[in-house]
Design goal:
Elements: E1 2-7, H1 11-16, H2 20-30, E2 34-40, E3 57-62, E4 65-70, H3 80-104, E5 109-113, H4 117-130, E6 134-138, H5 144-150, H6 157-172, E7 175-178, H7 184-190, E8 205-207, H8 214-223, H9 229-232, E9 236-241, H10 251-259, E10 266-271, H11 277-286, E11 292-296, H12 303-308, E12 312-315, H13 330-337, E13 342-344, H14 352-356, E14 359-361, H15 367-379, H16 382-396, H17 401-417
Parallel strand pairs: 1-2, 1-5, 2-4, 5-6, 6-7, 7-8, 9-10, 9-12, 10-11, 12-13, 13-14
Antiparallel strand pairs: 3-4
Helix pairs in contact: 2-17, 3-4, 4-6, 10-15, 13-16
Length: about 425
């Protein structure tokens, strides 16, 4: 069976040989599927391109997975260039899907994945022309995220148009995959389900969270050891990996480090980069903090080693965003795979951390509460810490991509049966 996985931002997966659709593709190949990943030519938040010149399509293969790159411009911010980048992906894909078929053959099923809706619209339109089913995968609820981040009102003209477009996608898709367990609650909130007199049948909605390739994680842990003296220091290490931007509220870590600055036996290690990185480094310097370190971006292959050298890993977010429907953060499952406890700075609905008893969620997203949580883990016995870590690793096995692909196969079989 031929499967197209359309994900605008999967270009990074080609480079990293990791990520949701790369791991799905790898598992599907093992099971006899013919898989093609279709993505943008531009790497996310980078000026780097996989295509040069005027060509609008390029094809490369890695690990048996066929990648098709659709020409777009590069975009490093969230302004006009980002919108144009999205539109070009949609337009150039709609103009060239027949050329892709000349190479890959006609797909039996198309899976079109957000973040932005134009990818799903393209998937639905192409599937209709080919008379094949289209699965739409909702990794971020859109346009709710736009309303939260920008202040745009759902009741505005633009807001109503965006919601109408969202409803159209949910209605036209042959199946819907949500990555957060509680996202179907959103459909109920809108009154869109058939049980409420609407036109979306909840039976076509499925939950498949993000996860981790445990075999690859363990290979990387053994193979890629980062030369970082801080990770080898005999102190209690609190590790954060990810982007340094307002959504991730890394300022909270700096403030908590300030509260604990007299505790030389506790250090905070921050791996990643972002638009607040320099600002927060300067803040830490002004506060005279010697217990917080900005380690910059590291290659993905070193993440398993970094997390496994921590005493506790930090899932850091801003409380301004809604977490009532759950969490689908990739890093949560990497944290769990490392076999170390997790501190979440926000409380979440459908909490995976609480379900697996692999860490704690702060009652209040404040520096004081974070500092208390860190000290709580510091004061635990080795046996208590080990229990949290063991629970984390056991929980990760439920989100291994071998297990998640079983769920995806069931959805594929369902839409093929019609």
């Amino acid at each position: 069976m031929k499967i197209w996985l359309i994900n605008h931002y999967a270009c990074d997966m080609y480079r990293d040989k990791a990520g949701r659709h790369y791991w799905f593709a790898k598992q599907l190949l093992k099971r006899g599927y013919d898989v093609t990943i279709i993505c943008s030519s531009a790497y996310l938040n980078s000026n780097e391109q996989t295509l040069t010149g005027r060509q609008i399509l390029g094809m490369k293969e890695t690990d048996g997975i066929q990648f098709v790159f659709v020409k777009t411009i590069s975009a490093t911010g969230n302004g006009v260039k980002r919108v144009w980048n999205m539109y070009l992906f949609y337009q150039n894909l709609m103009n060239s899907w027949k050329k892709i078929i000349n190479v890959t053959g006609v797909p039996d099923v198309i899976l079109a994945s957000s973040v932005h809706p134009l990818t799903m619209i393209a998937g639905i339109r192409i599937a209709k022309k080919l008379k094949v089913p289209c699965i739409c995968e909702i990794r971020d609820l859109w346009p709710e995220g736009i309303f939260t981040a920008s202040g745009l009102k759902p009741t505005s003209v633009i807001g109503r148009c965006l919601i109408a477009g969202e409803h159209w996608i949910y209605r036209k898709a042959d199946a819907l995959i949500f990555t957060k367990e509680g996202d179907t609650d959103y459909l109920l909130e809108k009154g869109w389900t058939t049980e409420q007199g609407g036109d979306i049948d909840l039976s076509k909605c499925h939950y498949i969270n993000n996860g981790v390739d445990l075999a690859q994680f363990d290979r990387s842990l053994q193979t890629y050891v980062l030369n970082d003296d801080l990770l080898k220091r005999n102190v209690f290490k609190v590790v954060y990996t990810g982007t340094i931007r307002p959504t991730n509220n890394v300022n909270l870590i700096v403030e908590a480090a300030n509260i604990l600055k007299r505790r030389s036996d506790i250090v905070f290690l921050i791996y990643g980069e972002g638009n607040q990185q320099q600002q927060l480094k300067e803040k830490a310097q002004k506060l005279g903090l010697s217990n917080v370190y900005f380690q910059g971006r590291v290659e993905r292959k070193y993440i398993p080693y970094i997390l496994s050298m921590a005493d506790v890993n930090l899932l850091n977010y801003s409380a301004e965003y809604t977490w009532k429907r759950g969490n689908s953060s990739n890093k949560l499952f990497e944290y769990m795979a490392s076999g170390k406890p997790v501190i979440s700075t926000v409380q979440m609905g459908y909490s995976i951390i609480n379900q697996y008893q692999c860490g704690i969620e702060l009652e209040e997203c404040t520096p004081e509460e974070l500092a208390k949580a860190v000290v709580k883990f510091y004061d635990m016995s080795r046996d208590e810490l080990q229990k949290y870590g063991d629970n984390a690793r056991k929980g990760a096995s439920d989100f291994d991509f071998d297990v998640l692909t079983d769920k995806l196969e069931q959805v594929i079989e369902e839409v093929k049966k019609g």
